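Chain A, query sequence.
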Amino acid sequence: MRGLKFRRQHAIGPYFADFACVETGLVIELDGGQHNEEVSARRDQQREAAMREAGFVTLRFWNHEVLTQTQEVLEKIFQTLQTLTPTLSRRREREERHSFEE
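Chain A, predicted structure.
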């Protein structure tokens, strides 16, 4: 996607993201019906908060959305990647400055 790589089951703190693009800080979570339950929804909020603290933006999609509305899901991912592109540029600049300083 746009030349970016996504990792499957990527560890972020004590959690595993379904898919993560470390370069842009985007996490994509795919949820089944069990995530509709109150306990699961609370856990999902905690996961998202931890990932946000680690510098990641989380997109959540229901499994059936991915299967039946694939184009819409892809468009949402592309839109989000576009908004994260400035973040990506800033991250690369910081990494380059940091490696230069060493």
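The beta strands are 7-12, 15-21, 26-31, 57-62. The domain at 7-101 is CATH 3.40.960 (Endonuclease; Chain A).
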